[in-house]
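Archive entry. Fields below.
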Amino acid sequence: MRKQERRAWICLALALVLFGGLCLFTYRYVKDGSKWVGHYGNTQIFTDGRINRGTVTDRHDEVLLHCTPDGLEYSGDWTTRVSTVHAVGDGSGNIASGAINMFAGQLIGYDLLNGTYDTTANGKKIQLTIDANANRVAYNALYGRTGTVGVYNWKTGEILCMVSTPSFDPAYEAPEDEGSYYFNNFLSGTITPGSTFKLVTAASVIDNMEDRGDFSFECDGVNEYGDQGTEFHDVYEHGEVDFREALAVSCNGAFGELSRKLGGKTLKKTTEQVGLSKSLEFDGIETATGSFSFPTDDDIKLSWAGIGQADDLVNPCSMMVYMGAIANGGEAVQPTLIKSTSFIDEIRGVKTLGKYLSPETAAELKEMMKNNVVENYGEDNFPGMDMYAKSGTAETGGDDSDAWFVGFTNDEEAPYAFVVWVKDGGSGAGAAAPIARQVIQELQAWNYYE
Amino acid sequence: MLAAYILLIAIVSLLTTRATPEIWGYFMVEDGGNFPITHWENVIGRSKSADLNIPLATVSNNQALLTRYDEEHWVYKDLDSKNGSFINGRQLDSSKKYLIEPGDEIVTGGVYSTVTPPSLEETQNNEVMRRMDKEPVAPWKILLAITMFQAMTVVQLVLGMGEEITVGAVASFVILSIVMWAYVAFFKAMGRKGFEMEMIAFFMSTINLAVTTSFDPSNTFKELVALLLGVGLMIFMCIYLRDLERTRKLRPMLLALSAVALLVNLIFGRAEFGATNWISIGSLQMQPSEIVKIAFIAIGAGTLEELYDKRNTVMYAIFSLFCLGCLALMNDFGTALIFFATYLVVSFLRSGDFSRMILTGVGALAMGLMALRFKPHIAARFSAWGHVWDPEVVDAAGYQQTRTMSFGAGGGMLGLGAGNGSLKGVVASNTDLVFGFVMEEWGYIIAVLLVLCIITLSLFAVMSIVAGRSTFYTICACGAATMFMVQTMLNVFGSIDLFPLTGVTFPFVSTGGTSMLASWAMLAYFKASDMRRDASLAVRKEEVWHA
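PREDICTED_STRUCTURE:
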């Protein structure tokens, strides 16, 4: 009998497996229950495949979308609809990262305790962090061009503006050429960064070159290099530039030289360190991953990579977060699209992504970005804001270059990091910078109003 | 809340009350001491796991079997030991059994020992000890709670379903409640004390009726009839199981009947959802494989003596193979898996041969993989496993699982209320996907408690071995526990994508007459292992002279 007693452990093992499975299920249920409930197969929540309850508003409670059993009711204003559709989402689920898809669980009013039990069947309100005014301004400023504008508060992580073009009107039939309209350049795009990438190379220089004070480069506007005489053209003949000056005038020749001095490994390390070669995850959204190659055996290609050309592809959202990190003494704050409503979220506060840069590096880079504005873009062009920035004009083989403008403002009331990209927009300072100015002005106006 | 209360009391009571073993006699070893004999069946030997341990090199690991015959007599059987056994100076033939009386001199490997009956004083001491055991919890509070729960269920169903609900369905709940009270009152009057297992089963059955009603109220009454038949069968089996010899004699008949039932199923079977596991007799439809489950347990179990008998083991293996073959031909691979897992566990309990169990398991796995090649519908389920949310699977092979999770999660912790669910629109939601059904209408807490109920019954079965009389009862209980657990695993894990969907029932909870009947009948095996004093009706009530 005693033998059988001992062998009975096998039944206990079975019980343990059953219990373990139950625990695994519970874990998944707590983690993903809201996603399960938000699946279109759930006929309690979905009428004809469309969610039938819940409201999405912007940060000022402006209603962007109201879900009813009779269908989806978007904002009455056309500009509002097209400028917020990538944040709000469409009924058919074409925009995967739209709120209606990502936060269906919250819209329904799902919670762990009550599930979808809801006697009123009105669902819940989701307050997004975006400002519909800023989105409208950004959309109009893009003026029909392909591009993206992203602004976030680098202290709290709240995304205030997120516009991607081309866009479409979700209140009507979806456009024919689906791909590009549904695509959110800000979250899912990977784009040649051009000169904005010099902010990464510069960070690498500050971290790794003790003697950067002695650096000097003689720019003749053509800057031939190597046996084949590869040319690193600059628009102007900059003459003799030091490191600081080289960033202010965005000298390709000088940054090519700096990249070669740093070497592929070092550049790669810095790029990883500032979060550009991995994807961000927030609110269940995963951004596209930037990709780069910094060859150690090809000086020419390395030089191009160091000035944001060659194979460099950056995700705009990651770039914006990097800007926020420079502003915030090197510490990056995770972005978010949902206003924290619960007590627990308030306590949890902002979520940091860790140190992208040392405080010293961040401070020096910040000073240099200020210098860019003073020397090159003109402080007068950004009235009422403490602006730090870098422009970019990326060669992508098209007729025109892509215009970039990235940076941040350092005002107490307006701590905004931003990224603006306009495809075929031409010069970064000329085409992209004014858009950043207009959107931030709009945000500041609301701050003042509030 | 009420449900949680009911189950927690029953679960805690089952897991905390423990039986002090009864003492059937004493085994006195010369210069070795006086050992109480706490089982009906004992191994004498040098092995540490022997019940009566004589740690001397001249004694074989498993020297002999000592089995209780009646109040005074024991049966001694030598297990082919190296040095043989002698009784009163006569060498024993290891192929024969010998009846011994108290005081007979047993010599094993040069050691003298005797068996003595317990003295009146010792019996009384043991009796006092057993009386000091924590008593099973009194059933009245739980009964009242379950009745309230049943009443609330009916109210919820009426509110949730309105016009759709039928008189028959409501009456079924009332009858269930009355039967429950009558059952407890009757056996309480007969002096029985432990009712936790039945309470758990009655509770689970209540959920079953609620699920059945919500799915289709016209089926509720039929389900109730099956339930009552099941309770009846359980009582009958409990009483029959009291006599070990009688039960053993019945086994060849069970074996034959099971074989016939499966063959009849094979020949006259009717396919439903891919498996040909139904037969119709007139308007009556049933799944013979569910009934065979009951017999399968009893056939697999054996007394300690039988475990040392090769023929018995081979017989069991052949019968298992036959069952598996029939089930495979019926395309009922879920049930086949249950039988197989039970076979593995039971044969491990019998032989203790872990490597053989692994080997058999691997062999079966290979066969299973072969089956995958020839059965595309099973292969499809395997390929969907773990990917049910993928866009190309979610509305195809993952349809049932994703709906289970989606609607199930919609129930939250507390559920949408009986009759308010929407999972019922999905095929087999009241059987294969019943876990999700319960989650949606009753909430996560109750759904999980139902699984914990099964775990509790099983843990109880394992714990009861310590005080078990015969390996027959303990193997029965462990076999039944295995069957319940594997069934629950396949059912629950299948519906929530922790395992490929197999389409088996959740004991007591899934709608289905035969399943309900079989679940109740299996409960008899658990009752038979309940050694708490006067707790179980499957154990003869202790006699008056003890007091």
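CURATOR_NOTE: Chain B has two domains: 25-131, 133-531.
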